[in-house]
Amino acid sequence: MLRNTSSVDLSKYTTVFCDSLQALEWAYNNGLSKSAIIKSSAPAVLWDKKKTIYNVESRWTVHELEKFQGTIQKLTEDIFDIAMGVTGVERDLALTISQSTYHFQKILYKASCLEVNDFTDPRLFIYVDGKTGPADKNMMNSPWDKLLLSNKSFSMIKYTLCNDEWDVLTTQGVSYWRRFKVAGYETIIYRLAIKLMKLLPNWLFTKEVLIPNENELNIEIASSLTLHGVKISEIKLDTLFDFEDSILDKNIEKIYKSISPIMRKRVEEWVVPQAVDITMTLFESCIKKQVEEFIRLVDGWERVVVKSDTVKQSVLVNSPGNAKCRALAHVCRKNGIPIMSSQHGVTVEISKIHSMLSFLFDNTVADAMFSYNSKIVDIEKNIHFDNAKHYIVGMPMRLSRMGRMKAINKFAPPIVYISTNLYHAGFSLSSRADYDSAISEHKLITKVLRRLPYKVRYKTYPEDNRRYADMDPVLHDVRMADNMELFNKKIDMRYLVSEHRILVTTCATSTLSWPVMSGKPVIFINQKHKSPLTEDAYSSLSRGIFVFNNDEEGFYDKIRIFLSKPIDEIEYLWRKKKSAREDMMKEYFSAYSSGAGARATKIILKEYLT
Fold this sequence. Notes:
This protein is α/β, with parallel strands linked by helices. The chain has helices at 21-29, 43-46, 62-70, 72-84, 91-111, 144-147, 176-183, 185-197, 216-226, 245-270, 273-302, 323-334, 374-381, 397-400, 434-447, 474-480, 513-518, 535-544, 555-563, 567-576, 578-588, 596-607, and strands spanning 2-3, 15-17, 37-40, 53-55, 123-129, 154-160, 207-211, 231-234, 312-317, 339-342, 368-371, 389-392, 415-418, 456-459, 484-487, 502-506, 522-526, 546-549.
């Protein structure tokens, strides 16, 4: 099916799937007719609204996407329950199957974009190859080659991007002093402890915490534990080996047979009849791949995590809602080693849509959960998958010290817009397709940001894993604005907060924590169709910070007029919200002003390392 680009007669194709302007231009220069219909979901390809360019995701209206999303939480719960009823399937594998069911929704989403003629008429797919990011997965291409496998008139060619460049998140350009100011002394203690304790003999310790990955609170907890004589040890997954298919096939067949009826019913609801069988085949392949990976991961961790008869052990993990960490949890439970996790950002307690991802929450895997505030505990305790004891310890110092950071660059624009406009190349938490998200960002830039009487920095989201080959078209709007400065280096916002006086951002994500904890005026845009706030969070946040709803009549005028006020006046209005903001922060951000690491350490020493 995959052909060399030089061996394909492009002139004979009248319908082409392509998500790259560069690849499309190459195709035109090599025989593709300018009248050919181009099916694409890439904002850059769709941007100029040419008559021959067709939005392949146009069937997904906001209403349809909300309907699609609204049934996923129950689907993952039902799949989990069914999998748990299969002989030999334990909790961590059932969770992995539930997660793979969710990820499969991205394929179902794409399958739902296909029409009857796509399965019978000639179709060409231009597959784009280029740098992708640390996940090492090419997310720039939809699975058209897999979905249209039965179409005998389907062909695919690979185009390799020219002059290809792609950067990932870095601290390059951030001074060691600034990094230290954010990271703090506890990070230095943690890094030194990891290196030094590796050299010390095991008989010196009676307690040990194993750490497979990190987050801000885990680092603070670990540094505190070292001061109590606890050994801190990094652990890394051992080499993964393949197994004979005969060992796996029986279990996979039982699992797939038990869950396929519920998935087939869903598939039939969303795709054309011609797509049902191939979509189900891909679902079976997805389940098989995930089960095989889980078994291999368990085997890998069993060669790393060995129960000690002389040292009391526990595991401290970050974001365990993935196959790798579930496999680790499975091994830990077999060895009687408790697995603990800590919150890695304020999202669950403020996001209206995140309940759809409850199967990924930390408390689905961990035995103990250290949280920032009571709100997230209330939510996580009531999900279908809850498995943990919950402890409220507050935010890590990395976040709380944001308010003590002094301005470094006095020449930086007074206002920064912290964009969260991350494309997903398919199904996501947003009830808008990528192109519609780009249009929304374009309107904010052209109707608000570039019309302000101030210099504005536009800080792009530091996307690690590449979604599309071409530059985001909205960045052209930024570059064309006289008053805007584009900051597209892959540097985390935590290192830049101190440079600005007014912080503007959007979407209920963990990004909001850094601006809020800075103490500087925060203007939050609550987007109805993209990670909106819960009703309770909206009520509290609108009293503590400045919140604007993008679906309100006159939204663009209201926020533009507000941001055009004198900076001193905005800061004065911000100070008037101080009392309400303190209540908001205690309820939705941090229950305590400091001491999270020490608080968690006392719990660990008393409950998990005795």
